[in-house]
Design a protein that fits this description.
The complex is a heterodimer.
Chain A (H helix, E strand, L loop, with lengths): L6 E3 L2 E3 L3 E3 L21 E3 L16 E4 L2 E4 L7 H15 L4 E5 L4 H12 L4 E7 L10 H4 L2 H14 L4 E4 L7 H10 L4 E4 L3 E4 L1 E2 L4 E2 L5 E5 L4 H14 L4 E4 L5 H10 L3 E4 L2 H4 L3 H16 L14
Parallel strand pairs in A: 3-4, 3-16, 4-7, 7-8, 8-9, 9-10, 10-15, 15-16
Antiparallel strand pairs in A: 1-2, 5-6, 6-14, 11-14, 12-13
Helix pairs in contact in A: 2-4, 4-5, 5-6, 6-7
Chain B lengths: L8 E14 L2 E12 L6 E6 L9 E4 L4 E9 L3 H7 L6 E8 L10 E7 L3 H11 L6 E7 L8 H5 L3 E6 L6 E2 L3 H7 L5 E6 L2 H13 L3 E5 L15 E3 L5 E3 L6 E3 H5 L4
Parallel strand pairs in B: 7-8, 7-11, 8-9, 9-10, 11-12
Antiparallel strand pairs in B: 1-2, 1-6, 2-5, 3-4, 3-6, 12-15, 13-14
Classes of the chains: A alpha/beta, B alpha/beta.
């Protein structure tokens, strides 16, 4: 593949601007017998915590119109298993690994990111202050600027790796949070995580998720995500990574035009595990045809 | 059970046939240029080229593998309705084979216990065991005579005992009732798939009879391959196990507790 798609997000250089979103692509390895995972611009792995987490009681997911709800609860193998069992194979597969980090306090985030700093083959850290499915941490850090900045500062001090902070759409004002994490030293900002939603089985009168609520993702949230990417891109100077219901080249272009320098594909990986690679191929063809680079599109929406 | 190296593939297939095998049940056959591998109990994630809604593929037990794959679809919602109404020549994306299949009996008889649409992996198992001359007893329970898809296909190959809850065909009652009699000779392995309440009952009856029982579970899932962590099931010790990668076939005792 030519380097027409090469994308720079501050200190992070990606071979293309199409990543896969945390929680929708496992640790990447699950897909390695279906595709060449090295082609993907970046794999944001399932959110990792210091200790393994079992996750929430089932049912943990249900389908909704043009989307899905999940209440997984950051079930993950923990730092040690990830680094010892997964990372060697991810290095062998030449995957671009974005470590999605989750902690319940700024100190815990710092400890985790300090440990990631010593791991070979991690391209960047994505700081998860936006998970709606955990009792502590997660979205609670992401709803306002102060706690978001506190976590970001702690992570910034703990690591030399590029730091991307992932925002929640449920922030009081997502622009404030974006500015706060920029001031606190983030190299880039990714958005959006899911919206809290609810679905009820009208026959049993029970919620369709075991814990009642869950995060809504998929094409259903795309217009909300595009609007927020547009707003955040105008509020900060660091690069913006956009996501929310991207399923094809057209959707990706929409995010570039709104102001995203790169994108992440999430729920659509479930619809079609090859979708990220299909978007990369289509984007390359598009850029060659128009004789442009993706960066030429960033923020170029014409507001009339 | 151990994780199998399934050699899963993402196959672009073409619908070859859609046969209504009972009211609301379709047997969907698809041509695979690259053969669909897979053993009884393993499953596939299937989605048509229908745009963004429904977003997720659907999980189905494999009824038949090879150059023509087969799954049994019960029309229970928008996604399965689209699948039941597909036409010959339509594009169908198939990810599989996924999960762990049934472990075949070493020397004994096989007792297959199906509930409704749960018959799917057991028909595949039956068709693998028949050429190996493994004696098979097939118990098939359903709500009504209209909920017994593939009954004719089973009758052609195995001894079949049918129960229905309304008595419209076979013995009136639950499938566990004849199972108690069948397990009086405990030199067998029980294989079961169906609603969760039935599977638990089949598991308990088998364990009480001192017979090994393997159950194939169903769960909502998004990915089918261990990435979404959506298909968690609570084990007797309170920990979680995942239907897609730890199952879908489990030893009954590992899910329902009790002795093996």
């Amino acid at each position: 593949m030519s380097n027409i798609l090469e994308t720079t997000l501050g200190p992070l250089v990606l071979k293309n601007p199409v990543m896969v979103a945390s929680g929708t692509f496992g640790y990447g390895l699950e897909y390695s017998d279906v595709m060449d995972i090295s082609v993907i611009g970046g794999i944001s792995v399932k959110g990792i915590s210091l200790a393994p987490r079992p996750g929430n009681p089932p049912p943990r997911m249900c389908e909704t119109p043009s989307g899905m709800l999940n209440s997984i609860g950051l079930a993950n193998v923990g730092f040690d298993v990830f680094v010892n069992d997964m990372m060697p194979r991810l290095r062998d597969a030449k995957a671009t690994v974005i470590a999605n980090a989750y902690g319940t306090s700024a100190d815990e985030f710092a400890e985790l990111c300090r440990k990631f700093d010593d791991v070979e083959g991690i391209a960047a850290i994505e700081v998860n202050i936006s998970c709606p499915n955990v009792k502590s941490g997660g979205i609670h850090f992401g709803v306002s600027g102060k706690p978001a900045a506190e976590v970001t500062r702690a992570v910034r001090k703990a690591t030399r790796l590029p730091v991307m902070v992932k925002l929640s759409p449920e922030a009081n004002d997502i622009k404030d949070v974006a500015r706060a994490i920029e001031d606190a030293g983030a190299d880039s900002v990714s958005l959006i995580n899911t919206f809290r939603g609810m679905s009820i089985d009208v026959n049993t009168r029970k919620p369709r998720l075991g814990v009642g609520f869950g995060g809504l993702s998929g094409p259903a949230i795309r217009p909300l995500a595009v609007r927020m990417v547009y707003e955040v891109a105008r509020a900060v100077t660091i690069p913006v990574v956009g996501m929310g219901g991207i399923t094809c080249l057209r959707d990706a272009l929409e995010f570039f035009l709104a102001g995203a320098s790169a994108i992440q594909v999430g729920t659509a990986n479930f619809s079609n595990p090859m979708v990220a690679i299909e978007i990369i191929d289509a984007l390359e063809k598009y850029c060659i045809e128009k004789n442009i680079r993706p960066s030429d599109l960033v923020g170029k929406v014409e507001m009339g | 059970m151990a994780i199998e190296h399934t050699n899963k593939k993402y196959l672009k297939t073409i619908v070859k046939n859609v046969e209504t095998v009972a009211p609301g049940y379709s047997l969907l056959s698809f041509d695979c240029e690259t053969p669909l591998l897979g053993r009884p109990g393993q499953f596939v994630m299937i989605r048509g080229a229908w745009g963004v809604n429904p977003v997720l593929p659907r999980a189905f037990s494999i009824v038949k593998a090879g150059n023509v794959g087969q799954v049994l679809v019960r029309d229970v919602g928008p996604g399965t309705a689209l699948l039941c109404n597909m036409h010959v020549g339509d594009e169908l994306n198939v990810l599989g084979p996924l999960g762990n299949g049934f472990i075949e009996p070493k020397s004994s008889r096989a007792v297959l216990v199906a509930g409704g649409v749960g018959v799917a992996p057991l028909v595949f198992l039956m068709e693998q065991l028949v050429p190996k001359r493994v004696p098979i007893t097939f118990l098939y329970g359903a709500r009504t005579a209209n909920d017994l898809p593939l009954k004719v296909r089973i009758e052609a190959s195995a001894d079949l005992i049918v129960t229905t809850e309304d008595g419209s065909v076979g013995t009136k009652g639950l499938v566990t009732q004849p199972l108690v009699d069948v397990l009086k000779d405990p030199n067998c392995v029980v294989y079961s798939c169906g609603p969760n309440a039935m599977l638990e009952a089949v598991g308990r009856v088998s364990m009480d009879a001192g017979v090994e029982c393997q159950v194939a579970l169903e769960s909502p899932m998004a990915c089918g391959m261990g990435t979404c962590k959506g298909c968690a099931v609570v084990k007797p010790d309170g920990s979680f196990t995942y239907v897609c990668t730890d199952g879908p076939v489990f030893v009954a005792a590992s899910i329902y507790g009790g002795e093996k």
